[in-house]
Structure to design on (354 residues):
């Protein structure tokens, strides 16, 4: 796979020219307009000192993931995880991650599942905005796509924040190169799947977390499994069900869990959703400590999914993009080991079907 090399001085000039015409572009949109990976815009800013490359602690099994170990000392921050179709923003304090090699999790208000083998580049960025100086920690994969970002808030200990990132700066790191985004792997055709074995394995799950392993063992794609398993386990929803689920959870005061992720990080909100606002193709949750921005026009398929567990069945609402990737999931809020909430089950079962 040929690495993508970039003339960063030229890129910096092209970005300045672009922003002279459209100064309020988000970093991701500017990168798309300039046909470069988002991380390349930060790499280009190393020249003027507004972006610093960072390295993880020496010998840490999680590599760059080790940058999160000390972030709790900074107090309240805003954590952001996104994919191409959905943005999840959560205010809170990082708990010290629990690590299992290069995989880990943080529990608490900032609730993350971390898959650090795909973490390739990290930066401390300082930007000037209309609201003043904005700082952030930003982490990217080998293709330069954003995995996770953290922003200070009014409640952040700014001295602690600076000390954490300054200790990780890597001024001698060579200029970044980027790998092309890997093509999606082609799965088996529906006719090659043993549907009876799939249904049996699905029915024998004892925890909703077993679902991924079940798909791997059956060598079946996620959206493919939903199509093949039958209405006992999954049924198609109208794409409008995403907005309907959020609005119903707000009106009926049903606390939910909202999962948004990418291959390097999954971020989870647990609790109520209150302020729901559609804006063009977006449906937004605009609460004080949780924001969600979801492109409803990117929902190619929506599904209600039933997963068995030792505490009873669990219902989820899952949203899929055109490429078959699951980019957002809703569950009823549920402490581990406890039964699913009746109000969530009723809500999920009543969503509009196709």
């Amino acid at each position: 796979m040929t690495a993508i090399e970039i003339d960063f001085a030229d890129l910096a000039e092209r970005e300045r020219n672009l922003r002279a015409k459209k100064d309020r572009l988000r970093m991701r949109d500017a990168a798309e307009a300039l046909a470069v990976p988002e991380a390349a815009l930060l790499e280009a800013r190393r020249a003027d000192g507004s972006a610093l490359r960072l390295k993880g602690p020496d010998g840490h099994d999680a590599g760059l993931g080790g940058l999160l170990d000390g972030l709790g000392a900074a107090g309240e921050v805003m954590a952001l995880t996104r994919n191409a179709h959905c943005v999840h923003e959560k205010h809170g304090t990082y708990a010290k991650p629990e690590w299992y090699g290069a995989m880990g999790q943080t529990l608490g208000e900032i609730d993350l599942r971390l898959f650090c083998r795909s973490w390739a580049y990290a930066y401390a960025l300082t930007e000037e905005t209309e609201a003043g100086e904005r700082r952030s920690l930003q982490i990217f994969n080998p293709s330069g796509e954003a995995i996770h970002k953290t922003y200070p808030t009014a409640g952040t200990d700014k001295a602690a924040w600076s000390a954490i990132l300054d200790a990780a700066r890597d001024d001698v790191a060579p200029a970044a190169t980027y790998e092309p985004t890997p093509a999606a792997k082609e799965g088996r055709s529906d006719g090659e799947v043993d549907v009876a074995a799939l249904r049996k394995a699905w029915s024998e799950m004892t925890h909703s977390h077993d679902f991924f392993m079940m798909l791997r063992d059956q060598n079946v794609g996620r959206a493919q499994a939903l199509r093949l398993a039958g209405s006992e386990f999954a049924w198609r929803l109208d794409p409008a069900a995403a907005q309907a689920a959020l609005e119903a959870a707000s009106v009926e005061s049903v606390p939910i869990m909202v999962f948004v992720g990418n291959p390097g990080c999954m971020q989870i909100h647990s609790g109520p959703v209150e302020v729901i606002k559609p804006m063009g193709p977006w449906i937004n949750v605009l609460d004080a400590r949780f924001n969600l921005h979801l492109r409803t026009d990117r929902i190619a398929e929506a599904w209600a999914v039933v997963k068995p567990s030792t505490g009873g069945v669990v219902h989820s609402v899952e949203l899929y993009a055109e490429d078959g990737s699951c980019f957002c999931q809703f569950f009823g809020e549920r402490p581990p080991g406890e039964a699913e909430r009746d109000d969530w089950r009723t809500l999920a079962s009543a969503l509009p079907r196709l």
Residues 68 and 123 are 13 Å apart (CA to CA). The chain has a mean pLDDT of 95. The chain has nine helices and 18 strands.
